[in-house]
User: Fold this.
Amino acid sequence: MRTDALTVGLPVHNAMPFLPETIASLLNQDHRDFRILIIDDGSTDGSPGYLETVKDSRVRLLRQENHGLAYTLNRMLREADTPWLLRHDADDIAYPNKVGAVIGHIRRFPSAGMFYSLADYYQDGRSFGSFRTTIAPPSVLANLTRAGYLLAICHPAAALNIEKTLALGGYRFDLHIEDIDLWWRMALLHDMVLIPEVTVGVRHNLSSVCGGNLETNALNTLYVQYQLISYLWGLSPLPYEEATKKLGGLMDKRQLEFRWHIRKASAHVGRRQYVRAMGHAARSFLTAPGYFLKRVAYELGRGEIAVNGLEPKVFASMSEALWRTDQALFRGIKGERTYPDGR
Assistant:
């Protein structure tokens, strides 16, 4: 088998009415030599019936009872019979260059662990706005991770080396942050190479999991950063329920409100409801002017490197609550070991 052969992995769970447009975008790629693995994770809407109508020799369809996204993604890693798995979501749009751009980069950087591209938002047949992405070479991505920060990468814009991803343990948490947990483990051991092209349109759907549960996702993101910092500092993290009770106090409520208004504004732009969009944009600015200006700077290409999470030293300030260990160690962490090297 060719070393640049890839499978597009498409998990499906109640994906109508967007699924036909998504499938069409995959079938109409400029580069046509690839496979598509679809796993229907117990859909109860019209998705199973529609998938039966998809007739293409590149498509392999598997069905299972509902097990959740992380389980489905790990099954994809095991079922794919190519060296690379290119992620896609059932409500997003693959632009015609998606597969070709990945294969071209695999040929240039065959030893990489992962590739990721730029993405924008998509709605009603048109694209608008940029998905906030960490744009940097692999060495910088590794250094940011070793410093305790999380990388901002669009999951449907990622292509994974299957062997290396499985060796890292695959996807671990079914908390809708399974991707950012994988990114930090990948960055510490393998090159993550940016494809400087927009290849994916992420549907801006406020009823989706990410759009409708910002506070839960923010808390789960802190939990992933806590996992990373625990690894870097050689400490044992608390179980999820216990840790998140303590991490909840670190959430920035202004930032959550800002993000909600920004997403609402963007969604209204996608629907051409410009007056409503301007109202939410104004409220986002009034809520958190600093975050607003950083977002504008990012869109203009003049912002700082985008990362997720808090300043790592914040976790050190709560060391007694977040880790059960010798207090002398934490005195070291709070001083010279604020940004320790990875192991």
Summary: Residues 331-343 have pLDDT under 50 and may be disordered. The domain at 6-204 is CATH 3.90.550.10 (Spore Coat Polysaccharide Biosynthesis Protein SpsA; Chain A). The first strand starts at residue 6 and ends at 12. Residues 243 and 322 are 7 Å apart (CA to CA).
